[in-house]
Amino acid sequence: MIEPREQPRRAPAGPPADYFHLRTQWLQYRSQLFDHGTGLPTLPAIFDDIRRAVEEKGAVFIIYVDLGRENSVEETWGWQVYDSILKDFVDTIKRVKSSILPPQAVLSLVNVRGDEFLLFITPPERREQQTAFRSEMEQLTQEFAGALDEELARMPTTTGVRQLHLATGRSFVMADPMQRLERQLYKAIGEARQQLDRKIERDEVRLRAVLKKIISERSVRTVYQPIVYLEDGRILGYEALTRGPENSHFKNSESLFRFADRTDLGVELDRVCRETAVMTASTQASQRLFLNTSALAITRPDFIDDHFITLIKDKGIPNKNIVFEITERVKIEEWETFKQIITQLRQHRFAIAIDDMGAGYSSLQSIAEIEPEFLKFDMSLVHNIHNSLIKQDLCKVLLTLSEKLGAPIIAEGVETNEEYSLLRSFGVKLGQGNFFLPPGQMGRPLNKFL
Question: 201, 423, 430, 450: which one has the fewest Cβ atoms less than 10 Å from its Cβ?
Answer without folding.
Answer: 450
